[in-house]
Write a structure and sequence with these properties.
globular; Maf protein; alpha/beta; hydrolase; 6 helices; CinA_C; single chain; Nicotinamide-nucleotide amidohydrolase family protein
């Protein structure tokens, strides 16, 4: 599965609760590995009552070296493509799933700004899901109204992650 989030950031305040209900209804657990969102996805999920039944944990791997040491991302991959890449998102998701013992792992990597990073513009975000049906979605600068703010990028990436998670769980 690939694609854009179905809803604009903030357009569905019930999205986190819908994700938690969907996971609980299928008896699935989830873990996160977050870079640019710095734990915002895990915090958003755990604000929902009942989240403790489905959220196993989360890794905040803001520094590139922690992507390898905490989330298990291959150092050679990081050296070859850098920290902002769809494959790194996939590896983060797999690392979260494995290291937290969850049914699903979701990884987020990208550039929140204010400056580009490694040749990637602000607003670049790769969100991957590891589980029975792996999935990936990406955002880019064109998905944001100018000027792009750090807060808007982080919020949109969390919304896109929630949407990807909900669509994937619903398809299982």
């Amino acid at each position: 599965m690939t694609g854009r989030p179905a809803a604009a950031p903030g357009s569905d305040p019930e999205l986190p609760a819908r994700v938690i209900r969907a996971l609980a209804g299928r008896r699935l657990t989830v873990a996160t590995a977050e870079s640019l969102t710095g734990g915002l996805l895990a915090a958003t999920l755990t604000e929902v009552p009942g989240a403790s039944a489905v959220v196993r944990g989360g890794l905040v791997v803001y520094a590139t070296d922690l992507k390898a040491t905490l989330a298990g991302v291959d150092r050679e991959l990081l050296d070859r493509v850098g920290p902002v890449d769809p494959e790194v998102g996939r590896a983060l998701a797999a690392g979260a799933r494995e290291r937290c013992g969850a049914d699903l792992g979701i990884g987020l990597t990208g550039v929140a700004g204010p400056d580009p990073q490694g040749g990637h513009p602000v607003g670049t975000c790769h969100i991957a899901l590891d589980g029975p049906v792996p999935a990936l979605t990406s955002l880019g600068p064109a998905d944001f109204a100018a000027p792009v703010s750090r807060a808007a990028v982080r919020a949109a990436c969390v919304t896109a992650a929630l949407d990807l998670l909900l669509r994937s769980v619903t398809e299982l």
